[in-house]
Amino acid sequence: MVEDDDEIxxxxxxxxxxxxxxxxxxxxxxxxxxxxxxxxxxxxxxxLGLPGEDGLTVLRMWRGExxxxxxxxxTARGTLNDKVKGLNAGADDYITKPFDTAEIIARLxxxxxxxxxxxxxxxxNKNIALDTVSGKATVDGRVVNLTALELRMLTYFLLRxxxxxxxxxxxxxxxxxxxxxxxxxxxxxxxxxxxxxGRTAITTVRGLGYxxx
Length: 213
Prior knowledge:
Strand 5 and strand 6 form a beta hairpin. The chain has helices spanning 6-18, 29-38, 55-64, 80-88, 101-116, 148-158, 167-174, 183-197, and strands at residues 44-46, 71-75, 93-96, 122-125, 128-131, 136-139, 142-144, 203-205, 209-211. The chain has two domains: 6-116, Rossmann fold, CATH 3.40.50; 122-211, Arc Repressor Mutant, subunit A. The protein is 43% helix and 15% strand. Helix 2 (29-38) runs parallel beside helix 3 and helix 6 (148-158) crosses helix 8 (183-197). It is built from eight helices and nine strands.
């Protein structure tokens, strides 16, 4: 998320994290450019009026370097000319302020499905299913209540079935930089998911990490 207004950013971060997203924030165009160029993100929310490089310049720089992550512009600039400029610069979607957080979340999920090749917002593996729109998780058709952190962790594993996931990788995804989890905290949440979805839902690979097969 690239947003210099703390009030707007705090509201969006709270809504996104409650819906299972993990969010990193940049407050100016220079940091935004570095984030997008150096790291892999599933999507970006980009304001246009920023300290340092403006959002449109940042977007053009990303696209010029073949940074392909989907970008949703969120800005107070709402004229037709502004929208055309943003979309022509490489934005995938464009929303003007004021906005509804629920709409931002829905559009981000739509962007992620399109770019990730997902035709339906349902993730599943064996007897476990997760509707990424409603956040409803089930095992053998039975609804399972999850905390926001458990939901994020389950989503992460379901998107990486059969792949190794290290504790460090999980910690970086689940927690913001200023609130990094200790390894034993990750283990606690793994244990909670196993209790809710079955002991064999997530396998521990000694010395390496975890895997959902």
